[in-house]
Specification:
Strand content: under 5%
Number of helices: 3
Order of helices and strands: HHH
Number of domains: 1
Distance between the termini: 44 Å
Oligomer: single chain
Mean pLDDT: 81
Largest sheet: none
Low-confidence stretches: none
């Protein structure tokens, strides 16, 4: 980081983003369940060979390699990003706490020799 530039992390805003990602993950999970149920159903298109073939293709398109799979992959990515963001927040707060502790110790050690020197 160059001198004069300060980085400020708004932890409350991070919390809001993490909460939003969790909600999106929940909604996506519901979408996965709906897409999976859709994939399990065989559309009622009749018994003629072209209709049966079309019904099977629609079922495949909604299944684990189709829509349900895509939505499930999206949900997984959302959850991973949510975890990564929560981890980054946790590490930031740990670093902040450590920095605060280091500064306090440095201040105390700087004040200690001065006090003993004055009282001698």
């Amino acid at each position: 980081m160059s001198e004069g530039r300060k980085l400020r992390v708004e932890v409350d805003l991070l919390d809001q983003r993490i909460t939003t990602l969790a909600q999106l993950g929940d909604l996506t999970s519901e979408l996965v369940a709906t897409a999976s149920r859709l994939a399990e159903r065989l559309p009622m298109l009749g018994t003629a060979p072209p209709a049966v073939h079309l019904a099977m293709r629609l079922r495949e398109a909604a299944g684990s390699t189709g829509l349900a799979g895509e939505v499930e992959a999206t949900e997984r990515e959302l959850r991973e990003f949510e975890q990564m963001l929560a981890g980054a927040k946790r590490k930031y707060l740990e670093h902040e706490e450590q920095s605060r502790e280091d500064l306090r110790e440095k201040r105390e050690s700087a004040e200690s020799p001065g006090r003993s020197g004055r009282s001698s």
